[in-house]
Design a protein that fits this description.
Blueprint: H1 6-16, H2 20-32, H3 36-56, H4 71-80, H5 88-105, H6 121-126, H7 133-153, H8 158-161, H9 163-181, H10 186-199, H11 216-235, H12 244-257, H13 274-288
Helix pairs in contact: 1-2, 2-3, 2-7, 3-7, 4-5, 5-11, 7-9, 9-10, 9-11, 10-11, 10-12
Bound molecules: iron/sulfur cluster.
């Protein structure tokens, strides 16, 4: 068995009468030649590392360029003052996404999901929820399976597929995970993944000065909020008109045809603005000192 299409996971679900996450668990057991208990124990360690990273955030650290740091704390305080225009859950998700992505930019320990640049999306939608251990496993195996399929059929790296491949994939993983813990069907997980990916298709990778700071930290927020809306649409019975594997293929094609300036080279988009160039120059001067 290989996790190279959503259709294959759906087929296994039907054939073996398993939930989506259980198919992914079975794959991990087979692939790594471990017991289900060993596989689950490793997944729970991953969850612990996500929780530890969130707990370690203080808002005090600044990134190497000085452009990033403290916004997660600003958002937490804004939420505490009851000023957010969003409900409690979504405003907490925004604060978590900012905090985790800032922690990455500030060289703290995070969990790449699927990459370090997009590390804030998946934990952000899960951490504010009070999840049972079973729900944590459901969410993380579902997300892993989705990430594996996208890595196999398209790309999960900004350098090869643009930010749609990195934040887009993280958003799709988070959307599927949310549907799984809400008790959605395999089909609903597929629709959530498709809608999350479609909404971010074409997003370029344009990190200022080549640092995973600007616009990366705030893109984690849009990935997380997009995931919630895609999951809610799927749970409401709304369907993607384009099948999920076709959407993944299309994302891969867009990525392959994306000009090199928009694939992590810091030669286009926000990196090529006067401000972006000035930051790069300042960083180069500092390095040469
Ligand atoms: S802009 Fe590029 S480096 Fe930044 S999060 Fe997106 S893919 Fe990653």
């Amino acid at each position: 068995m290989a996790l190279n299409s959503m259709r294959e996971i759906f087929r296994q679900m039907e054939q073996e009468r398993l939930a989506f996450w259980e198919v992914v668990l079975a794959y991990d057991v087979e692939e790594r030649q471990v017991s289900p208990e060993e596989s689950k124990a490793k997944m729970l360690l991953t969850w612990q590392a996500m929780q530890d990273a969130a707990d370690a955030y203080t808002g005090q650290r600044r990134s190497v360029s000085g452009l990033v740091g403290g916004d997660g704390m600003k958002m937490r305080q804004y939420n505490l003052r009851g000023e957010s225009m969003l409900g409690e859950y979504v405003s907490s998700v925004i604060a978590e996404a900012l905090s985790m992505a800032e922690s990455n930019a500030c060289m703290r320990r995070i969990v790449a999901a699927p990459t370090a640049g997009a590390c804030g999306v998946l934990p952000a939608v899960l951490l504010p929820l009070e999840l049972t251990q079973r729900q944590v496993l459901e969410a993380l195996y579902t997300a892993s399976g989705i990430g594996a399929v996208i890595a196999s059929r398209a790309s999960i790296a900004g350098a090869s597929g643009g930010c749609q491949a990195e934040i887009g994939t993280a958003s799709a993983m988070a959307a599927g995970a949310l549907v799984a813990i809400r008790g959605g069907s395999g089909a609903q997980i597929g629709h959530a993944v498709a809608m999350a990916l479609k909404n971010l298709m074409g997003l370029i990778c344009d990190p200022v000065a080549g640092l995973v700071e600007v616009p990366c930290v705030k893109r984690n927020v849009i990935g997380a909020v997009n995931a919630i809306s895609a999951a809610d649409m799927a749970m409401a019975g709304i369907q993607s008109r384009i099948g999920v594997d076709e959407v993944i293929e299309a994302m891969g094609q867009v990525g392959r045809r994306m000009p090199v300036e928009f694939r992590e080279t810091a030669l286009g988009g926000l990196a090529a603005t006067p401000t972006g160039k000035a930051v790069k120059e300042r960083m180069q001067k500092a390095q040469n000192r």
